[in-house]
Amino acid sequence: MRNALRDDAGPKQRGSKHEEHLELVKELLSRCRGNVARVQECLQEEHGISIPYPSLTWMVRTYELAQAKKERSGQYVFGPGEEMQHDTSPYKIMLGGKKVNAQCASLVLAYSRKHFMQFYPRFTRLEAKVFLSKAFAFMQGVCPRCVIDNTSVIVSHGTGPDAIIAPEMEAFGRLYQVAFVPHRVNHPDRKARIERPFGYISGNFLAGRDFQSWSDLNTQAQTWCESVANAKIKRSLGMSPEQAFLEEKPFLTPLPEHVPEAYRLIHRVVDSQGFVHLDTNRYSVPERLVGAKVEICVFWDRIKVYAKHKLVAEHDREFEAKQARITDPSHHPPLKRKVSGPCWEERLLFGENEVLDSYVAGLKKRSRGRGAKPLRRLLSLKQAYPQEPFLKAVERALHYKMYDLGRLENMILAITAGDFFEL
Fold this sequence. Notes:
- The protein is α+β, with helices and mostly antiparallel strands.
- It has four domains: 18-66; 83-251, 2-Layer Sandwich (Nucleotidyltransferase, domain 5); 264-326, no CATH class; 344-420, no CATH class.
- It contains 15 helices and 14 strands.
- The chain has helices spanning 2-9, 22-31, 36-47, 53-62, 125-139, 167-176, 192-195, 197-205, 214-229, 241-248, 344-349, 354-365, 372-384, 387-399, 405-420, and strands at residues 83-95, 98-109, 115-120, 145-148, 155-157, 164-165, 179-182, 264-269, 275-278, 281-284, 293-298, 302-307, 310-316, 325-326.
- α12 packs across α14 (387-399) and α14 crosses α15 (405-420).
- The chain starts with a helix and ends with a helix.
- Mean pLDDT is 86; it is low at 1-12.
């Protein structure tokens, strides 16, 4: 009977005698960043209130103090040709037998889910324009709105609806009649169409595949998009993205008739060795331009160097190497150094006397370079003293292989004093 009455009455709602401190707990919980143990300490230290830890956690759970109440999520529905979404994600991939960092750039049509991706060693505004140009060409058209995150590659400053698009990217968008729209901060579901494929890329495309170069990687990526990602039937569509794209294609904005190739323009001064510096590497230019100002057009896979609006050099762009020199042999022919002859001091000393010639040769052999400095002093001794004592001293110095010109001058003085003066 007791059990029956208890069942009829339903579960008894039990409270806590500490609920009178609910507002204080809520305030401290916000200040302590959700750390309940720290809230318990503050209650005791600052207010002299002792609440057991189980009672404190019960209050937090019951009144949902630790986290905001979850709200029902909605769903975004897009019409054909209405929106496309773009995002990037970092990966570590094996490239040429070496693990490297890569940025995967992706674009998807929100209605048909048609997907395109490419990989880059870094993702700047140059790579953004290169990728988007390829993606728009792959889609054979564009949607007027492209939802992006708040990356500084496309956004100049601000976030979400208040974001200001970088003038360079805004001009790029006008070329295709596309407006870039950043979503609100902490609202990535706004571009869920592009967020979901990144896990599929990691688990399917990158799994078990080897790549020899960036070109090979991007070629395989495009093939995978065509034969796998866009050919697979999606449950939400009831068909493959390629089949849904046939319905969406008539609603896309056509591509411009002419699309200039994306590049970055920088200015450099040719160094003394005939190279221009770019991204830690050096590229050769004709040696006649040493010290000249040049313009470099940096494309995704190559660079072009212009001097006075004339193309003077073109190289494949180096991505992996650091501090490398990329040289075109036609730019730097072998250096022709002039073979220097004897110095003028040697020419004045040589040819008059065999003993002096031998001494000059020995002195030059023991000197740096052409021996101009010691030969200049020897010439001054020859010109300052009489010829006979000078040659006698040189002959004696040569016999003893003595090439100290200070001691040679003392010998000349000794011989001169003995011949001309009565000491």
